[in-house]
Amino acid sequence: MTLVHMVFFKFKPGIPAEQKETFVRELKKLKDLPSVKGGRLLVGGPSVTSPAEKSQGYEYALVSYHEDLAALEEYQASAEHKWVTETHLHPYKEDLVRFDFEVDGEDEHLCGFGGIMASMLGKP
Fold first, then answer.
1. Which H or E element spans position 43?
2. Which of 46, 75, 106, 114 could form a disulfide with 35 if both were Cys (CB 3.0 to 4.6 A apart)?
């Protein structure tokens, strides 16, 4: 099974670009946690959505993959995750949206896990 974890980040007005870049850089390091399936964690932004109003002020997003809900909980409870969010997010965020879902077995291959292609690439 694969569980997809998505978070959208909105910063308070006036937060400098350098602070946001530091947050993104530190957030990307979480891909090395064992609870992140296959090291697959993406951070993107700022948003290029057009018209900009469709983003509702959310500037950055994270998408990560986890084996199951227990692995996601382990990820969120990790000292590394807590440090990044407490140091580089909470003092600067205006809002965030989180959405997690389990991938249907028939769609598992779309995440790059399992199936013939993954076997050829030597990936779980």
1. strand 41-44
2. 75
